[in-house]
Amino acid sequence: MPAYSPLSVRAIYMHLAAVVQLRNFRDSPQPQLNSHSATRMREFKSKDFWRAVLAEFVGMTFFIFLSIAAAIGNTNNTAPDQEVKVSLAFGLAIATLAQSLGHISGAHLNPAVTIGMLVSCQISIFKAVMYIIAQMLGSALASGIMYGARPSQSSALGLNTLNGVTPAQGVGIELLATFQLVLCVIAVTDKRRRDVTGSAPLAIGLSVCLGHLAAISYTGCGINPARSFGPALILNNFDNHWVSPTSALRMLRILLYANSIKSCLNNSITDL
């Protein structure tokens, strides 16, 4: 049996101890970044993410410009034919922009839609916040452009006004009109569906048009909080602006409640 010097024995012992420590370190759970923080960092460093945010900004700018231009081009904006014209302009603008920008950002072009996508777990919180900021900025920019380009005899800029209805009635009308739009967007973009063979942008545009046909006579139709925000900011008139955000918040509560029920049902089924 070969003889080992004390130094050799000590070296072997230290080597074995290092191997054991390395194995224990490898087998021990390693600290990881919070999943939400990691997601935010990945998105923040992604060029595709910022392209999507820019697409929301550009899309909202064009949408507000086209829709407000249609709304204030005729001073007789309470006539039924004018309401149809404005409703078609809003719907066609959304359909066109959704088809053009949908592959980049999903073409939300509406904070209510973004919130709906967030609640349905289709986007992250960070992306939702950045989308809404981009939408608000785009709305303000387009409203400022239209403020400078509007006809001299016109003082309108597409502000939301209550026509013959109480604030509570206005909130109810806006809530239902907004909810049908968000429901349409979530339904036609659901990747689990196999029966949707038509054009999703066209369906969304028709939903926007339908919402305006139903609500424009009563509230001016603020189913898009960003659209309501831009003109109110430029004219510094927020008298009835709260109706649209309140409706969006109520819709958010409904979606959160529905999502919590869905989670409870899924957990119950899993536990069976």
Q: Give the overall silhouette.
A: globular
The N- to C-terminal Cα distance equals: 64 Å
- Series of H and E elements: HHHHHHHHHH
How many β-strands, per DSSP? 0
Note poorly predicted spans. 267-272
Helix content: over 70%
Please outline the major beta sheet. Answer: none
Count of discrete alpha- or pi-helical segments spanning 4 or more residues: 10
C-alpha-based Rg, rounded: 27 Å
Structural class, judged by helices and strands? mainly alpha
| Quaternary organisation | single chain
Describe the protein.
The structure is a single chain. The protein is mainly alpha-helical. The chain is 74% helix and 0% strand. The N and C termini lie far apart (64 Å). Residues 267-272 have low confidence and may be disordered. The chain crosses the membrane at residues 49-72, 84-107, 128-149, 169-188. It comes from Solea senegalensis.
List its salient traits.
272 residues; mainly alpha; transmembrane helix; MIP; 74% helix; 10 helices; membrane; 0% strand; disordered C terminus; glycerol transmembrane transporter activity; single chain
Write the layout of secondary structure elements.
Layout: H1 6-27, H2 35-45, H3 47-72, H4 80-105, H5 111-119, H6 125-149, H7 167-188, H8 200-219, H9 225-235, H10 243-271
Helix pairs in contact: 3-4, 3-6, 4-8, 5-6, 5-7, 5-10, 6-9, 7-8, 7-10
